[in-house]
Amino acid sequence: MRRCAWPLLRLPARAGLVPRHGGAAARLRPAASAASSSSSSAGGDGSSRAPDTSLFVPVPLKPVGDAAEEDVGAELTRPLDKGEVLKNLNKFYKRKEIQRLGAENGLDARLFHQAFISFRKYIMESSSVSADLHIILNDICCGAGHVDDLFPFFLRHAKQIFPMLDCMDDLRKISDLRLPPNWYPDARAIQRKIIFHAGPTNSGKTYHAIQRFLSAKSGIYCGPLKLLAHEIFQKSNDANVPCDLVTGEERVYANEDARQAPHIACTIEMCSTNTPYEVAVIDEIQMIRDPARGWAWTRALLGLCAEEIHICGEAAAIDLVTELMYTTGEEVEVRNYKRLTPLTVLDYALESLDNLQPGDCIVCFSKNDIYSVSRQVEARGLECAVIYGSLPPGTKLEQAKKFNDPDDPCKILVATDAIGMGLNLCIKRIIFNSIVKPTINEKGEKEIDSITTSQALQIAGRAGRYGSSFKQGEVTTMHRDDLVQLKEILSEPVRPVKAAGLHPTPEQIEMFAYHLPDATLSNLIDIFVSLSQVDGLYFVCNIDDFKFLADMIQHIPLNLRSRYVFCTAPLNRKEPFVCTTLLKFARQFSRNEPLTFDWLCRHTKWPLAAPKNIKELVHLEAVHDVFDLYLWLSYRFMDMFPDAVLVRDIQKKLDDIIQVGVCNITKLIRASQSAAAPGTAAVVSEDFPLSRTKRDTRVVSDRHGAKSIEALSIAAEVPGERRGKNLKTHRSATRQEDLKSHGRGSLANRLLREGLLTQEMLRQLESEWQDQHRNGRYGLGSKRDDQNSSKEMGKKKK
Q1: pTM (2 decimals)?
Q2: According to the UniProt entry, which residue ranges have a biased composition of type Basic and acidic residues (predicted)?
């Protein structure tokens, strides 16, 4: 295996050729400076940043045991006095000149310390060392040598345990991401015409791009969702334009003989950058800034081999796309569109579900709110459809069809922001149940913050779709206080898209692994990102999900390419059942045992019955994700996942079962409430107040995950100001009595009587509210309350 060889490592074999009496430091400095200079210019402009050495994991180096060959050094001189050796090694470590010399050779304070500890342990615990090192150590102990003479041996050892030091130039070159356009020579070989269709939701921008797609001899549509790809697939074939469907889990051919059609509708990650097309359509280009998936839009924009590239999305991305195309020598033609139907922000909030009208859509940002609102809607004798992100695509389409059907009694939709794209809905009025949404920040922490202007416009724009029965759209909020803030959000300009996402390719990781064969995949990715260089137009996408899967399957023996594929599998890492299944897939794959249909049925306990409560519905959704995972892997390892056809058949049956569950969601909620075990969270009661959340930011530790979010959601649904005053007035000796004295017929007492909350849950709620008081959110509380709250929070953490 080739390495970047440095002259310092080519040590003389004979004792007489080793520098002595301080000469090592003097003679090594020029070479070290040259190496440092070479390293600093690795990026080509001398601006490469220093690596994060905390990511460098040392390779274990075992001391030489008693079974080693004869100790030649001892025969030539004498056995070493390990006590004297230890004293001299410690002197060597404390020498400022040696530390400076180490820094010049890539050993910062952290690496220098780790390398020395390993070097000292190796010498002290080895029964014998190499002859040249033995002679140098003997000379130093006898006063005939200088501790500086140990540096070449120390450096050699350091590069054995930190092999990346020996090939830093190569690693920097591999991770240099400053010229992504050069990664796609086929696209650079043609002159492409770039047309940007810019406009808000419901402006017809995608329609015009698709018309050009249908009229072309060949074309590819790249969308963010399977639903969108499926819609274009159906539209094309209905228009007698043969079109194939390509997603991560599915290949559907327009031709019966499975010949590839000239048109393809695909999810954007699946687009080919090698196949030539006349027209390509890239939808929702603003997602190029997405911290997880942005790389797919960058790859499509820079790499598609099409004579015309039609880009659809927000005007906020125009400047970035123009700059990116400038680097490829291509001009951008911008076509602006205006909304086809008027959208009005109402001056009044809904305030009560009694004021609902046909065509209303209530938008929530959590499943808890979906369950609560849908239960309350149906309690008023209104039938509602339900759509949220984790539902299978088929179920979403059926719920949308049910809501859109003028002959169906279902006239209300309760949904998450999953309706923002991919579904055509006949909505008259969008009602924001809340204007705050849980998100994950760059540090992997949960944040609850106000929705952005882009998100608000995307969701609000679904009202009054052109061609529907509603000629104009309306938008408002559930609560009066939120309406003022929503108007502020909608009036703000959309923040421009500043940078495009990038992601390490399998080839780049393979080259890294060539140089660092002992590093784990997770560590390779960390080092890659640490060394990567990008210019101002790009950023490296979040790799937390990739690393999570890499660490999860690290103990399973897989080759690097297969390991990389498993780590890019599309799954929600917060679904334990799905993660466990991936682990079992990888383990069986490593044993070269095909994962058959029978094996999958045993694992998922298929066939499955219709859900009887919410917990069972959630499990069915997880099983659907497992089937998706199997299908995704079957297109990458066909021989090991051979039963894709059978799995797709049972997945369709499972989709029907989930549809039945969603149609009866209020019955499932009631069943969940009646069967709720003590100490477990139950779905809220029929007359539970709708969620009211202040416009603020709260960070919740990822370690506590969804549990903290659910608790926060329940806590937020208790009217804050009234509860705060009562708490201040009725504090008693114990927290239990305090909550019981919340007033005759209060919400807390009702929930206790109905068995929906336990005393432990109530104590947790009060603790959370006390924490809010301590932060001054409601202007209540005292030092004593703060201390009590802090003590209780401490006990919970313990």
Answers
A1: 0.76
A2: 782-798
